[in-house]
Amino acid sequence: MVSSSVSRRQFLHSMASTGALLTLSLTNLKAEQPPNILLIFCDDLGYGDLGTFGHPTIRTPILDRMAAEGQKWTNFYAADSVCTPSRAGLLTGRLPIRSGMCSDVRRVLFPDSAGGLPADEITIAEMLKTAGYRTACIGKWHLGHLPQYLPRQHGFDYYFGIPYSNDMDKVRNLSVDEQMEPEPAFYNVPLIRNEEIIERPTEQHTLTQRYTHEAVEFITENKAHPWFVYLAHTMVHIPLFASATFEGSSRAGRYGDVVEEIDSSIGILLRTLQEMQLMDNTCVIFTSDNGPWLQFKQHGGSAGLLREGKGTTWEGGMREPTIFYWPGKIKPAVISDIGSTLDLFVTIAALAGTELPQDRIMDSYDLSPTLLNQAPSPRREMFYYRGQQLYAIRRDAYKMHLITENEYKADNQRTIHQPPLLYNVDVDPGEHYDISSHHPEIIAELKTIVHEHTKSLIKGKDQLVKRITSP
Predict the structure, then answer these.
(1) Sheet containing strand 389-395, strands side by side
(2) Domain range spanning residue 442?
(3) List 55, 102, 142, 283, catalytic entry
(4) Both 168 and 237 in a single domain?
(5) Quick check: 35 and 352 in contact, CB under 8 A?
(6) Is the peptide bond before 236 cis (omega within 30 degrees of 0)?
(7) In this structure, are 301 and 389 located in the same domain?
(8) What is the mean pLDDT of the chain?
(9) 83 belongs to the catalytic site
(10) Direct distance between the N- and C-terminal alpha carbons of the chain, in angstroms, rounded to an integer
(11) Which side of the chain, N or C, has fewer Cβ within a 10 Å radius?
């Protein structure tokens, strides 16, 4: 964590003009061309929704193979438990509370929101552009739908996707049953290419196919350059849509259809990389923005043995199935150390050989020594925010809950715990057995970490506010 008076504009200009190299712990990775990065980000995928993470009937042979031949991370966390702050944390390497991309009033951005990712935040795409990367955002953005907040204002050369969640812009109030048996016309969601709306409402049955096609086209057109593709799938967010090929094909129902189509999509991308002889120089990362939307029951996925799901700071809300795949560079392993989507910024910077911004606090750790040499992960702690309030902290095996609250349930009671709850999530990942009375010394240690974290924290201006309209 470093700070100085260097501005964002000065940082980007100096990196572009000097091509300065990152002085991090990465060793022996100075290829003639830096590696391509394919970051595949699902929406609302549960910890237990892949075959390799324990689902008995959802078939994910491509992801299972990637996990077997790459690194499967079993303690990897999203930056938040809902869409907007989670995506902000991933792209900036900073807790969303620092950028104002979380709120106690509105937890995500909506079509009537006034804000978005601030211009002074630096994204992975902006960082990679200074090293000559071609960059594309394909899929769900959800960091601001107004023109000044769209992806091309944040370092992406190309954008194709929807600007927010696929259940927004409802044409009328829909029952839960209607949302579970949806029609595309129920949602007036726009499909955008760069800044132009090309379809409205979006035909959602073919979104996964079209995202895949766009990614293949971008990779093909830019194969002579290093590239970064951020493929943020709309699925498996409710409403669920699959193409005709996959609809009704899974033993796990509609939800399984959608997950299996994403798996097939990844297979197409890997074949494309192999055919273009890019696989040896491409790092593929797969994870999700938050846990399953349990309100929708069998259409909402599963957190496996973890407790609760989307919207909560229980493990099921933020611990995600995560795979790193890079044949010849990443050796097969199961990594049980802690990692986070927050760490992708510095890790990708290390792999690409780019410099880090020096004018802001970063919440990102370099995981490249773990990826390349199976060194221990440098991340030992994880902060669990709900809106702008710190609800829990994990340090090594122990997780302390200061506040708990369910989500999307009739009994969403907010409880402040005195003393805090304490779980050993290595022994008890389902958070069933409170051991606070047995370990007052660990409670004291974790409280000290919380104090040090919060005493100098500067909260960003709330970006999730509603637009003020004339009466």
Answers:
(1) 381-386, 389-395, 398-404, 415-424
(2) 383-455
(3) 142
(4) yes
(5) yes
(6) yes
(7) no
(8) 93
(9) yes
(10) 46
(11) C
> Are 415 and 277 members of one domain?
no
Q: How far, in Å, are 20, 248, 277 from residue 213 at the CA level? A: 34, 22, 18
What CATH code is carried by the domain that includes residue 326?
Answer: 3.40.720.10
Question: Per-block average pLDDT, block size 10, for the chain (471 residues)?
Answer: 45 46 38 89 98 98 98 98 98 98 97 98 98 98 98 98 97 89 95 98 98 98 98 97 97 98 98 98 98 94 97 98 98 97 98 96 98 98 98 98 87 90 98 98 98 96 84 44
* Same-domain pairing of 226 and 109: yes
Note if 205 is an active site residue: no
Contact 365, 377 (CB under 8 A): yes
Q: Is residue 4 part of a domain?
A: no
Asked whether residue 180 is assigned to any structural domain, the reply reads yes
Residue 76 forms part of a structural domain: yes
Q: Are residue 242 and residue 319 in the same domain, yes or no?
A: yes
Residues 295 and 439 in one domain: no
Please identify which of the residues 42, 55, 83, 145 carries the catalytic annotation. 83
> Of 375, 409, 443, which residue sits at a domain end?
375
- Clarify whether residues 362 and 402 are in a common domain: no
Structural tokens at position 113: 């929101």
The answer to whether residues 335 and 445 belong to one domain is no
**What CATH code is carried by the domain that includes residue 447?**
3.30.1120.10
Q: Is 189 left (phi over 0), alpha (psi -120 to 50) or beta?
A: beta
Cβ-based neighbours of 294, under 8 Å, separated by 6 or more: 300, 301, 303, 308, 309, 310, 408
Q: Provide the domain count of the chain.
A: 2
pLDDT at 469: 61
